[in-house]
Design goal:
Elements: E1 2-7, H1 14-23, E2 27-34, E3 45-49, E4 68-71, H2 82-103, E5 108-112, H3 126-139, E6 145-150, E7 153-155, H4 165-180, E8 185-187, H5 188-200, E9 206-210, H6 211-218
Parallel strand pairs: 1-2, 1-4, 2-3, 4-5, 5-6, 6-9, 7-8
Helix pairs in contact: 1-5, 2-3, 5-6
Length: 220
């Protein structure tokens, strides 16, 4: 039986990961750390409201006996400044892995990344460079098992969806595209199911999953 840590449980992907973890019989407990509570109630679920994601000292003791961490804490690039986006995408993640290195280096760490991430940071696209930097930071840790997911288009099902008119238009178009060419993307539920599956049992210790590989695992 596994004990899971989840960040970003109120987001589009994280909320689906939470649902999958609650349904998974091999998961004994879930610790959700976030700025606000999820509004969900389940015997497995414990929640910590935490406001400083650059400092995990207050919750350090609670991270010692966990088996897996599924990291879904993220924001939309157009919702914050570039500096804030770097802090949320890279610095928040590093603050958590720094603590895990110290108190629980054997934990399995699963990162919700993005297609197009460029760890070389040579891309002309800021989004790709920043997402790539986050991947590099994870690879630099001594954590035992590390998995990165780079999904393509994510079609939201459920109540939580990206905000804004453009996101609404994208969902409408994306839903049609997925019906015609399902290989181009996946739903947030499908992504969540694969992330949880890999976190619990995957033969390789380190792997980056591109969209095609994620889709292939959806059918297994």
């Amino acid at each position: 039986m596994k004990k899971a840590l989840l960040t970003g449980a109120t987001g589009m992907v994280g909320s689906q990961v939470l649902a999958v973890l609650m349904e998974e019989p091999s998961v004994a407990s879930i610790l959700s750390i976030g700025r606000r509570k999820t509004g969900r109630s389940h015997p497995k679920l414990r929640e910590i409201v935490h406001n400083d994601f650059l400092n995990y000292t207050a919750v350090e003791e609670k991270l010692k006996d966990l088996d897996i961490c599924i990291y879904c804490l993220a924001t939309y690039q157009n919702q914050v400044s570039k500096e804030q986006y770097v802090e949320i995408t890279c610095d928040y993640q590093k603050a958590l892995t720094d603590v895990l290195e110290k108190v629980n280096p054997g934990i399995t760490f699963v990162l919700f990344g993005a297609a197009g991430a460029d760890p070389s940071e040579k891309s002309r696209i800021s989004f790709a460079r920043i997402k790539g930097r986050a991947e590099t930071l994870l690879h630099q840790t001594p954590l035992t098992r590390k998995y990165i997911f780079r999904p393509g288009y994510i079609h939201p099902i459920g109540e939580i969806k990206p905000p804004g008119i453009m996101a609404s238009v994208s969902r409408t178009i994306g839903g049609v595209v997925l019906q015609i060419a399902p290989a181009l993307g996946l739903t947030n539920r499908e992504l969540a199911e694969v992330m949880v599956k890999v976190s619990l049992d995957y033969p390789e210790h380190t792997k980056t999953f591109e969209n095609k590989e994620i889709k292939a695992l959806c059918s297994k």
